[in-house]
Amino acid sequence: MSKDKKIIKQSDDNCPVRKSLAILGGKWTLLILFQINDRVIRYGELKRCIPGISEKMLIQELNVLVEKNSSPKNLTLKSLQELNTD
After folding, report:
1. Does a structural domain hold residue 1?
2. Tens digits of pLDDT across the chain (86 residues)
3. Which of 15, 67, 78, 86 lies 20 to 30 Å (CA to CA) from residue 58?
4. How many domains, in total, are found in the chain?
5. Distance between CA 35 and CA 76 in Å, rounded?
């Protein structure tokens, strides 16, 4: 009785799972996306909704989301610059 063995393909740079992990793999990314996905939220409120995140890290993560075009439509580089002035 021989079972057919599954051939596991190597995941290269075009692998959708690898691409998803590159975007969502950060410690804070999913928490940020959860907060900003369905509503418009001010920077200060966003920071309060994610305990433990530093201001520097929050800004970095928001910038990464904007650069990778994976953020909600209402989050743009211009809106991030306005957030930084609050």
Report:
1. no
2. 556 777 767 777 778 888 777 777 888 988 998 888 877 888 889 999 999 999 999 999 888 888 776 555 556 555 555 555 54
3. 15
4. 1
5. 16
